[in-house]
Design brief:
With 217 residues, the protein is α/β, with parallel strands linked by helices. Helices cover 53% and strands 15% of the residues. α1 links the parallel β1 and β2. The chain has 10 helices and 8 strands. The chain has a 6-stranded parallel β-sheet with strand order 2-1-3-6-7-8, with helices on both faces. The protein has a two-stranded antiparallel ribbon with strand order 4-5. It is rod-shaped, with a radius of gyration of 27 Å.
């Protein structure tokens, strides 16, 4: 049996969810709570496998409830059940190690499937939630990749002059270096930014704040 606890401050929601879960003979609802304060005690008594947790509770705001739950029982699996699909909520929940994130209004089949998947060691994310989490991870990965790039002072100078439309000769004269040295720096810059040409290199560098773009008057 999959032993479940429902935590939601709306009695009607708890009733409806319990009815849906009870339709599965492999799931037993061993507890219901309208707040987080008695959850640690209930977890100890019931040894529930999964907690279905709303993120907006009267006595615990946002992910605070999740933090309290994790402190009380680190190994208990958690499925967030909420009407909030903001990226920051999703990311905070993911960072605290939830096993599932469902939006209220999902169907019974999806809810039951989530419980079985999570109980078996998997995860359960609605498509819209998974999409937002992936977008966040991609953005963070992009920032991390850019942050690891190291440009010498000379390379930054060359990049800034490239942004101004300067030729290799112009750059060489401005920095008092040979054209061959300029070409060397340009080649290194293109490789670091994985750019195909100077224009793309300047665009990427500007997007990530490596150089500043000055508007012409």
């Amino acid at each position: 049996m999959i032993k479940a606890i429902i935590v939601d401050d709306h009695p009607v929601v708890r009733f409806g969810v319990k009815q849906m879960l009870s339709a599965d003979d492999q799931i037993e609802v061993v507890g219901e709570l309208g707040g987080i304060d008695k959850l640690p005690e209930m977890l100890a008594e019931t040894r529930a496998d999964i907690v279905l947790l709303d993120l907006e509770l009267g006595d615990a705001h946002g992910v605070d409830a999740l933090r309290i739950l994790r402190e009380a029982s680190p190994t208990t699996r958690v499925i967030i059940y909420t009407s909030h699909d903001e990226e920051d909520r999703i990311v905070q929940a993911a960072e605290l190690g939830v096993d599932g994130y469902l939006l209220k209004g999902c169907g019974q089949r999806e809810l039951l499937s989530a419980f079985h998947s999570v109980h078996d060691g998997g995860t359960a994310l609605e498509s819209s939630v998974a999409s937002k989490l992936m977008q966040h991870m991609n953005k963070r990965s992009s920032r991390r990749q850019t942050d690891t790039l190291r440009f010498s002072k000379r390379e930054r100078q060359v990049l800034q002059l490239l942004a101004g439309g300067k030729t290799n000769r112009d750059i060489g004269e401005a920095l008092f270096i040979s054209e061959s040295t300029v070409k060397f720096h340009v080649h290194a810059i293109l490789n670091k930014l994985e750019a195909n040409n100077r224009t793309e290199a300047v665009s990427i560098a500007a997007q990530h704040g490596i150089i500043e773009m000055h508007r012409s008057r």
